[in-house]
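Appendix B, Record 12. Input sequence as logged:
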Amino acid sequence: MEQRTVLVVLFDGVQSLDVTGPVEVFTGATHCLDDADGAHRGYAVRTASMDGAPVRTSSGLTLVPDSALADAPAPDTLLVPGGTATRSPDPELTAWLRVHGPRARRLVSVCTGAIRLAEAGLLEGRRVTTHWAYCDKLAKDHPGVEVDPEPIYVRDGHVATSAGVTAGIDLALALVEEDLGRAVALTVARHLVVFLRRPGNQAQFSVQLSAQTARREPLREVQQWITEHPADDLSVGALAARARLSPRHFARAFQTETGLTPGTYVERVRVEHARRLLEDTSDGVAEVSRACGYGTPEAMRRAFLKALGTAPAEYRRRFHPGPAPATAPGTSTTHPHR
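Logged structural output:
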């Protein structure tokens, strides 16, 4: 198998991690394959700026490209990172993308790199995402683009877009898994000490980040307790006792300060924890349900259907192709109608 060329576009004001994160993933995959059999497979990663000159990143680092864009090899994957420079138009780069973008087998953006692709007319009619702070701008400036502010990355045909910064690593790992298989992607993830990959439909914020942090210390401690002990008794009465408040006072104060009822917060934490276990372990559905505080696998199934529109067993199959771990008797694996 010949190496696939990944061309990363550089420009002044680029976000350095938008570049280096995916580059580390793609080069890591290549090293993994080279170490396995000594053959040169995987990816040939190249960087290029408009004129071939070094660029200064938004954090002040200087990156030296391999070449000017005019001299760069035709890419299999064209990757456009984000950065402060994307807040202003760049007619020269936009013109280059408009001509060369359609020639790539796969178009990828990290963070606000989606703005550059949209300016070049490459996202029309596509479902995309970008950094949460710029989703409204992208949607307003380009009404022909369907902007989804929730996921960390979105795949729509040959176009793949991701949210900010570290989400580019998740997307790159997903692309490596698609190209070279799960084993290679897992090896790279282990070297980088990250999850194999967060699923693309995972929210840009975890429950803890999306909910407000309580101002009062007892309530903040309860929030942390819920996160660290999803299998414990997390009823309003038990949580109120931990906060040393009456159940009624606790429920009212918790919702006022976090924006969520205690029950909703607990349910979201448990679903998030269950998703991670299903993605990253081989534990059976029954075992996962116990670890996440669900009384039965059926209770977890109902929670998944409500939150994600799919059953736990079907959700796991997206991340573990092949025979799935055994489910508890009576636990349905049928994908719900949508």
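The longest helix spans residues 16-37.
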